[in-house]
Design brief:
single chain; 11-stranded mixed β-sheet; binds adenosine-5'-diphosphate; 11 helices; Carbamate kinase; alpha/beta; about 25% strand; about 290 residues; binds N-acetyl-L-glutamyl 5-phosphate
Length: about 290
Amino acid sequence: MRKQNMNRDWIATARTLSEALPYLQRFTGAVVVVKFGGNAMGDDEAMAEFARDMVLMRQVGVNPVVVHGGGPMINDMLKKLGIESEWVRGKRVTDKATVEVVEMVLAGLVNKRIVQAINDQGGRAVGISGKDDDLMVCEADDPELGFVGKPVEMNVQVIRDLYTAGIIPVIAPVGTGTNDNETFNVNGDTAAGAIAGALKADRLLLLTDVPGVKNKEGEVLTELTSQQVRDLIEDGTIAGGMIPKTETALDAIEKGVRGVVILDGRAPNATLLELYTEHGAGSLIRR
Ligand SMILES: Nc1ncnc2c1ncn2[C@@H]1O[C@H](COP(=O)(O)OP(=O)(O)O)[C@@H](O)[C@H]1O
Ligand SMILES: CC(=O)N[C@@H](CCC(=O)OP(=O)(O)O)C(=O)O
């Protein structure tokens, strides 16, 4: 009896693999930028699962590029140091002391945790920040926000060099400035959008803590056009942290990214479900 059940499971697994063939073919050679938000990160087991998905994508010929956040981890460290943060329109007001903590946490602790998790799964990950090779050159976003950066020049060749060599780049959203010795704190979604746009990526996956973009009734919209997104922002259905996220999506599409998906990073194998099954996951935003 047990043996029969097990056989049924194996048959289902084999069928899933077989049904993935057209998707595996479609995404071979594709560049997929994955924004891994701090809220989507979870415990070590969830991190290992995310890492395994990235290694699997790489194994089947996709070029994954990971851009991460880490807002909750920055909050923890600021709290330990007794530094308070204020938020304006979803962005952290960042003074000199705060930007030092942001760089330490994002380019250090969070970046290396992801790098190590991918390497532990048999992948080859290399962690960099937007400062490396002048990847992300910024200007101040708004004087009110202090050292919050708006990317003004992207030099993405280093990313191409890494993925061409079989390496998964893992990028912390910390930027350099147009003047010497400047450091900018960049919102993770903004950084991922700028990187995906500059690479003209096939997909930008924004992993967050909700199943997707919801309508007024609270139902997840599986496909949206840019115009529908604008209408939902206009009528207030898209609010809070979903505003910068969807604006990033529109901006990336404008720059030539083929499709942006907002999906729940806490769901098991979210990225694989999105790329390799007919069901997809989350909300796909296209031109
Ligand atoms: N229409 C909407 N559909 C889905 N989520 C929405 C919507 N409007 C506002 N939100 C909020 O946006 C949040 C996601 O943004 P945010 O918290 O900044 O994510 P992250 O930390 O992953 O970058 C959701 O948790 C939800 O509370
Ligand atoms: C300017 C700004 O707000 N930067 C963010 C950078 C990290 C981030 O974006 O993290 P999540 O993706 O986990 O939210 C911050 O300081 O928290």
